[in-house]
Amino acid sequence: MDQAKTPGQVYGKLIGSGVQAAISMNNGLITTVAPVEPEQLNTGTEELWIAPGLVDLQVNGFGGYDVNLAGVPMEDRVEAIKNMTHELLKMGTTSFCPTIITAGYEQIMDSMTAVRLACESDPLVDRCVLGIHLEGPYLSGEDGPRGAHPKEHIKDPDWQEFLHWNEAAGGKIRMVTLAPERAGAVQMIRKLVSSGILVCIGHTAATHDQITAAVDAGAAMSTHLGNGAHPLLPRHPNYIWSQLAEDRLICGIIADGHHLHPSVVKVMARAKQGRIVLVSDAVHLAGMPPGKYTTHVGGEVELLPSGRLQTSANPLLLAGSAASLLDCVAGYSQFTGAELSEAFTLASAKPAELIGEPQLGTIATNRWADLILFAITPETRKIEVRAVIKRGETVYSTSTR
Ligand SMILES: [Zn+2]
């Protein structure tokens, strides 16, 4: 491999400690992280920071490419997953769970197959895809909690059906989001957990006791808490308070500034005391220029310059998340007052730990060399990605050298 693709060593300030360091890499792993004196660095060059590559447990699409494509040949679906992986890498997301949502049996089979084929045919995609997140179809059918999941396909958990999907996926299903109030949910959670799958509570209208029973059975995360909910709730108890108060649940949130009011993000951060994972929940229009789009399901939507993606028919309704996980890192830091380094941790080490990938999400010897090099614009505090490294290989760079 040429040197530009496998740099061997990168320099920058480590997010967290702020120490100027040289990170050496070999065979995809970090071999040393050593402090360097400022005089050893080239003067006059831009100050670069280094953070671990981001780990996004919930991604439906990005950059115009969609995991849940329907009515197209299999090769187009596979191509979409490959292209999406490259678009995500540009934004610093080096590991992710393509998220397959509620649909009919065959459509889910095809989406599962597409992810497997994309991984089998492209080593870089295989390295970036941690596994599939199946969000549905075992969700609440109530308007509000079900969000945009099509009502006609929502159903009770079915272990045999799940096994068929997982077979099509080559055993890649790694996370399942379900609603604990569905008949048979507790038994389903036990089976999933004993198969090593991360179970998340989401798109639910469960009672307090149903949530407790799900957690007793092994559910470990709340999927985008505060979204996929009724517009009005009893003041207490309700399924948001119950999940917030349940210390055994890690709370997944979309900190894009549109899905949750900044005050809610702050309160969730305080209540959960670091037991938070940032997810983008990005849809295929994320990373696209502002404008009006027609989605493949037929709806007219508008992406505003602020990053808000709304339906044209009713601008009050969100049409999904158009944020990258990096946007959410910046948002979380801004809304909660947390250091940027803490926000990075919630989008790298924390999700990596939760899904069982201790080799990811931290910058240390013998961990995968998944790194983001970035600048911070002093006036706006905006994060500007300069290079992205996946397992020691430069997969994106703004440098023309
Ligand atoms: Zn959802």
Automatic annotation (TrEMBL):
<feature type="binding site">
    <location>
        <position position="135"/>
    </location>
    <ligand>
        <name>Zn(2+)</name>
    </ligand>
</feature>
<feature type="binding site">
    <location>
        <position position="203"/>
    </location>
    <ligand>
        <name>Zn(2+)</name>
    </ligand>
</feature>
<feature type="active site" description="Proton donor/acceptor">
    <location>
        <position position="281"/>
    </location>
</feature>
<feature type="binding site">
    <location>
        <position position="148"/>
    </location>
    <ligand>
        <name>substrate</name>
    </ligand>
</feature>
<feature type="binding site">
    <location>
        <position position="259"/>
    </location>
    <ligand>
        <name>substrate</name>
    </ligand>
</feature>
<feature type="binding site">
    <location>
        <position position="235"/>
    </location>
    <ligand>
        <name>substrate</name>
    </ligand>
</feature>
<feature type="binding site">
    <location>
        <begin position="318"/>
        <end position="320"/>
    </location>
    <ligand>
        <name>substrate</name>
    </ligand>
</feature>
<protein>
    <submittedName>
        <fullName>N-acetylglucosamine-6-phosphate deacetylase</fullName>
        <ecNumber>3.5.1.25</ecNumber>
    </submittedName>
</protein>
<dbReference type="InterPro" id="IPR003764">
    <property type="entry name" value="GlcNAc_6-P_deAcase"/>
</dbReference>
<dbReference type="GO" id="GO:0046872">
    <property type="term" value="F:metal ion binding"/>
</dbReference>
<feature type="binding site">
    <location>
        <begin position="227"/>
        <end position="228"/>
    </location>
    <ligand>
        <name>substrate</name>
    </ligand>
</feature>
<dbReference type="Pfam" id="PF01979">
    <property type="entry name" value="Amidohydro_1"/>
</dbReference>
<comment type="similarity">
    <text>Belongs to the metallo-dependent hydrolases superfamily. NagA family.</text>
</comment>
<dbReference type="GO" id="GO:0006046">
    <property type="term" value="P:N-acetylglucosamine catabolic process"/>
</dbReference>
<keyword id="KW-0479">Metal-binding</keyword>
<keyword id="KW-0119">Carbohydrate metabolism</keyword>
<dbReference type="GO" id="GO:0008448">
    <property type="term" value="F:N-acetylglucosamine-6-phosphate deacetylase activity"/>
</dbReference>
<dbReference type="InterPro" id="IPR032466">
    <property type="entry name" value="Metal_Hydrolase"/>
</dbReference>
<feature type="domain" description="Amidohydrolase-related">
    <location>
        <begin position="50"/>
        <end position="395"/>
    </location>
</feature>
<keyword id="KW-0378">Hydrolase</keyword>
<dbReference type="InterPro" id="IPR011059">
    <property type="entry name" value="Metal-dep_hydrolase_composite"/>
</dbReference>
<feature type="binding site">
    <location>
        <position position="224"/>
    </location>
    <ligand>
        <name>Zn(2+)</name>
    </ligand>
</feature>
<dbReference type="InterPro" id="IPR006680">
    <property type="entry name" value="Amidohydro-rel"/>
</dbReference>
